[in-house]
Amino acid sequence: MLALVDIMSSLIKVEDLKTISVDGGDVKKFLRSNEESFCGFGEAYFSFIKKGKIKAWKLHTEMTMNLVVPVGEVGFVFYFEPSSSFEVFKIGTNNYKRLTVPPNIWFGFKGLGLYSNLVVNLSNIVHDPSEAKKSEISKIKFDWNKL
């Protein structure tokens, strides 16, 4: 079963992103069209999450997500249904990375920064509620206090 977990978790790409310090405020890179993680553009959207709040569980059947947290800190939890395993990432202002998440992986996230935290998703398709599944937070057992 460990091999399945390794194969499934390798589906999520974690990439360091560049922050350029400039007088007056930093510039944070996100994604270029010539990068491997770019799989087309459908929509970009912002999701704010307050400290300690949780948004879970959701699964996209078609959408590939490119997630960054330019403001604050967010803990992302991914659930791999076939192996009943989890993978956790904490990204944000001081750990600036991009998570590229293919379809068919359950996910949720928790606000960890002091105030409001900003998640940005650049997806390959326009949001379509019919291609997403939702589950009650209690259906997938994860200890959110670990974050």
Core attributes:
147 residues; mainly beta; Jelly Rolls; five-stranded antiparallel sheet; globular; disordered N terminus
Explained architecture:
This protein is mainly β. It has a single domain (2-31, 40-146), classed as Jelly Rolls (Sandwich), CATH 2.60.120.10. Helices cover 5% and strands 46% of the residues. The protein contains one helix and twelve strands, in the order αββββββββββββ. The chain has one helix spanning 2-9, and strands at 13-16, 19-20, 27-28, 43-50, 54-60, 65-71, 73-80, 85-92, 97-101, 106-111, 116-123, 132-134. It has a five-stranded antiparallel sheet with strand order 1-9-6-11-4, with no helix packed on it. The protein starts with a helix and ends in a 13-residue tail after the last strand.
